[in-house]
Design brief:
The structure holds two protein chains of two kinds. By secondary structure, chain A is an alpha+beta fold. Chain A is built from 13 helices and ten strands. By secondary structure, chain B is of the alpha/beta class. Chain B has a nine-stranded mixed β-sheet, sandwiched between helices. Classes of the chains: A alpha+beta, B alpha/beta.
Chain lengths: 414, 249
């Protein structure tokens, strides 16, 4: 692909990207290509071999976001989100489920480093660093609604069903969370729950740190998904789950406070998507320069060449927006919220078109499981629904652009 | 014990390079560059010796443009302690490289110098041998195993007939072959830490060594395209063609 961005990246960013690319080319891609059946292993814990996570560990991509004082990485904070995007793209180019598994750790680490009491950071960050299988998860979505009910429905009746009540020196959580990335196999969860039923979500939601082994927390199932299958999406039930009072992260305004998580999350989401697009392009470019039809390699057929050009153009357009949006997030620009949602929604729709072309240009082979193109197609498709659907992302763009009208409660106009 | 490792920035071996239109060399504009793979093995070996407590300091040296600093930075991220960049835009031939490295060795006084057995761009396979001759040190080339003692090292060499083990008195020179080790990836945390490690920038003049070219590149051209295969009608024809045309039977 084109790498005209080299000049604007720092030396460290380029070295980190190259290191990840080598890891993906040497380890991840060969594994994915020769083990296509593993995705469909119905024991979720067995799908991804430990050696892949250990490899990810060796290059240090599992624990980005952990502060250096706890043994983490000292990324330049001014360009941290841009760096996240670069790394996420490279890993997703190998496998977007693996990328999903890893980036969740970065995103949740940001929340923990910002809001958890220092003794909890001292307890959990070293554990995260020590165990290659240690994963983090962020529990927001519930069976009865997710980001679709945020705004413009900030009213008590739209609040989360999961509730937390203070009982002496413990919070007691009751409720259910679903579609949780890493939910099936995480060791530590950040959980959002309603702590004030009299107000809307934005004022009455608190966040908590909940270790997996806490009594009252049950991981009930692994959701089988169409794509990103090496990330085990889970469902959790909280039944009188008691956690110490100091495990409260943010009281009442947890959703508004987690902007740093959400904004970085959208960029990472778009960047993973981009990685899938690049994989689609690379595989297809290789195929059409080798496969002969009608006596000529495919790329010499104009209908093929035009589609390939279209794929490359869409990828570069997505890349440009991801770069612009990540810069805005890094610089805490007032338009960062708008741009990161734009990048996320645009990436998901454009890369879906790229993946569709990849499938078309592979002809019958495109539909074969062992060829790996349909996997990229599925991995691209799931982005339309992950971390907010495209429609909800669009709603977020507009409510942020027009807070006084689109951002207000959708009741009768005054 | 101090180890000096020489590293070269070369075109990525996975990239398909092209000859320049005027046949004067290889077109390196916009080509992805990387550390010479054999030099990566040399760095890895030095870092392992340091991790095993056999070496105290690993110094990496590169000769080239400012971009070679990136190659040094990769070596520092793999675990080397500091770097020396001898900056020049000129093409530096193996003998000139050996002379510069000799000057570095005289200044640094290492116990072992490790280089890759050859760089994958020009495949010269000369620098290590020339350097050892200039220094008057013993050499263990094409190393597939290294055992470091207090005053000597044992180097297992890959030679045509199999393996040969030589014992060298220190200081000594080793060139790394493919099977010496499997180099690590520079991890992301170590890439960030390497930013703080020092790289000393010098010029060839600082070492008083002449890098005037002594070789003339006459022509660089690409290998001939492989001809399309043919279908033969029978086993008899196959044998006949293998005998008559391919000359293999």
């Amino acid at each position: 692909m084109i790498h005209a961005d080299d000049g604007i990246l720092s030396q460290e960013q380029r070295l980190m990207r190259d290191s990840c690319r080598s890891f993906v080319d040497d380890v991840v891609t060969p594994f994915i290509r020769s083990n296509w059946q593993r995705e469909w292993d119905m024991s979720p814990g067995e799908r991804l071999p430990g050696s892949i996570l250990e490899g990810a560990e060796a290059i240090g991509v599992r624990t980005l976001g952990v502060p250096e004082e706890f043994g983490g990485i000292d990324l330049e904070r001014e360009t941290e989100v841009r760096t996240f995007a670069l790394i996420a793209e490279e890993i997703a180019r190998g496998d977007s489920g693996l990328a999903d598994k890893l980036v969740q750790n970065w995103k949740v680490s940001i929340v923990i480093r910002q809001f958890a009491a220092s003794h909890l950071q001292e307890k959990w960050f070293p554990r995260l660093l020590k165990d290659p299988k240690f994963l983090l998860a962020h529990c927001l979505t519930e069976p009865r609604g997710a980001s679709d009910r945020w705004l413009p429905y900030n009213v008590p009746e739209a609040s989360m069903h999961t509730k937390a009540v203070l009982d002496g020196d413990h919070w007691v959580i009751n409720g259910r969370k679903q579609f949780i990335s890493n939910g099936f196999d995480a060791s530590l969860y950040v959980v959002y729950a309603n702590t004030d039923p009299s107000v809307g979500m934005l004022q009455g939601t608190s966040s908590f740190l909940v270790p997996r082994e806490t009594r009252g927390l049950t991981v009930t199932k692994c959701n089988e998904t169409m794509g990103c299958r090496f990330m085990n999406n889970g469902e959790l039930v909280f039944e009188d789950c008691r956690i110490p009072a100091d495990h409260l992260l943010v009281k009442s305004t947890a959703l508004a406070s987690a902007g740093q998580y959400f904004r970085a999350g959208k960029i990472i989401q778009a960047a993973k998507n981009l990685g899938v697009g690049v994989a689609c392009f690379e595989r297809t470019a290789d195929y059409v320069q080798n496969y002969v039809q009608g006596g000529r390699i495919l790329i010499k057929h104009q209908a093929v060449a035009l589609r390939l050009a279209d794929m490359a153009t869409r990828i570069e357009a997505v890349r440009s927006l991801v770069e612009r949006a990540s810069k805005a997030v890094d610089e805490a620009h007032p338009d960062a919220d708008i741009l990161c949602n734009m990048a996320k929604v645009y990436a998901s729709e454009e890369i879906m078109k790229v993946a569709t072309h990849a499938l078309e240009l592979h002809g019958g082979n495109g539909a074969m499981l062992e060829f790996g193109i349909e996997k990229l197609f599925r991995d691209a498709a799931i982005f339309l629904h992950m971390d907010a659907t495209v429609d909800v992302s669009r709603m977020k763009i507009i409510k942020t652009m027009f807070p006084a009208t689109a951002g207000k409660y959708a009741g009768p106009e005054n | 014990m101090k180890i000096v490792v020489a590293v070269k920035r070369v075109a990525d071996p996975n990239v398909k390079v092209r000859a320049l239109a005027d046949s004067s060399g290889v077109d390196l504009a916009n080509v992805k560059m990387t550390m010479n793979p054999f030099d990566e093995i040399a760095v890895e070996e030095a870092v392992r010796l340091k991790e095993a407590g056999r070496a105290d300091e690993v110094v990496v040296v590169s000769i080239g443009s400012e971009k070679s600093a990136e190659t040094l930075r990769t070596a520092l991220a793999m675990g080397a302690d500091r770097g020396i960049l001898i900056r020049t835009e000129a093409v530096v031939e193996p003998l000139a490289v050996a002379k510069l490295l000799k000057a570095v060795a005289e200044a640094e006084r290492p116990d072992i110098i490790i280089t890759g057995k050859q760089a994958i761009d020009d495949d010269a396979n000369q620098t290590g041998q020339m350097l050892s001759a200039l220094l008057g040190w013993g050499q263990g080339t094409f190393a597939s195993k290294l055992v470091v003692g207090d005053k000597a090292i044992e180097v297992t060499r890959e030679i045509d007939g199999g393996l040969q083990t030589v014992s060298l008195q220190l200081p000594a020179l080793v060139t790394a072959d493919l099977r010496l080790n499997e180099p690590r990836y520079a991890s992301l945390p170590n890439i960030m830490k390497a930013k703080k490690k020092p790289i000393d920038e010098r010029t060839p003049a600082d070492y008083g060594a002449s890098i005037e070219p002594r070789l003339i590149v006459v022509r660089v051209h690409e290998p001939a395209n492989r001809k399309a295969g043919i279908k033969v009608g029978s086993v008899g024809e196959l044998v006949e063609r293998l005998h008559r045309e391919a000359g293999v039977l």
